[in-house]
Amino acid sequence: MAGLDELRNRAESANLRFGGDLLVPFSISGGDEIQALMTSPAALWEIVEHLDLVTGAPIFRFGCGVGALQTAIAARSWEMDGSCFHLAREAIERGKVDQRWTAFAGFGAPFDGALDALARSMQVIREDWTERQRAALVARREHGSQKETAEAMGIDPTTLSKMLNAAHAKEYREIQHATTQLLIGLWEEGHGGLRD
Fold first, then answer.
1. What mean pLDDT value characterizes the chain?
2. pTM over 0.85
3. In a 3-state reduction of DSSP, which class is residue 26?
4. Do residues 41 and 81 touch, judged by C-beta distance below 8 A?
5. What are phi and psi of 41, to 5 degrees?
6. Spatial separation of the C-alpha atoms in residues 194 and 111, rounded to whole Å
7. Fewer CB within 10 A of the terminal residue: the chain, N end or C end?
8. Residue 66, by phi and psi: left (phi above 0), alpha (psi -120 to 50) or beta?
């Protein structure tokens, strides 16, 4: 389990990088959790990866709840109330029971289940990554091209390509993209009171 300093560092790092995507920035709540309110789901996976991949080894379980707010916007999400927070808690609790890395609640049937299944597919891929493969995926994300990534890692481009193929990087990104498109579509259609 990560210490309070590590949680705070990751929250602050995400707030700096994704401030424009957060209606209310990440803050620590419940002692060992961080919580935020997003402006839309478009940057969800980028934020998740920044918190749990780029900044270090995975330490989080993510719950994404969608719904209306019952209170005014505040400086910290734990000073607010609304179904979005209760549904996020429900998703996290279900994730604990089912050993899920990421779970969704509030979009309604069958969408919550479809989103959970897509996230589970990504989780299965992630769980097989070696530390070196994870480092390669992070470097690839940061450097853009495979040539630049290989140079930054000090390895041959062919070696990098084999490493990314073994990590199922292409499939992982495909699932990630499909999930993002589904989330955006549900957002635009107003599922779960998203646009209330």
1. 91
2. yes
3. strand
4. no
5. -85, 5
6. 14
7. N
8. beta
Q: Is the distance from CB of 64 to CB of 103 less than 8 angstroms?
A: yes
pLDDT tens for each residue of 141-166: 889 888 999 999 999 999 999 999 99
State the number of CA atoms in the 13 A half-sphere of 141 facing the CB: 17
Which residues in 78-139 belong to E strands, given as ranges?
102-105
For residue range 4-31, what is the model confidence (pLDDT) as tens digits?
A: 888 899 999 999 999 999 999 999 887 7
Sort 26 into a burial class: Cβ within 10 Å, 0-12 / 13-18 / 19+: buried
pLDDT in the model for residue 32: 82
Rounded Cα distance, 89 and 77, in Å: 13
Backbone angles phi and psi of 103, in degrees to 5:
-140, 155
**Phi, psi (deg, nearest 5) at residue 43:** -100, 15
Q: Among 30-39, 78-87, 184-193, which is the least confidently predicted range?
A: 184-193
Q: Are 18 and 47 in contact (CB under 8 A)?
A: yes
12: containing domain: 4-128+168-193
d(CA 147, CA 127): 26
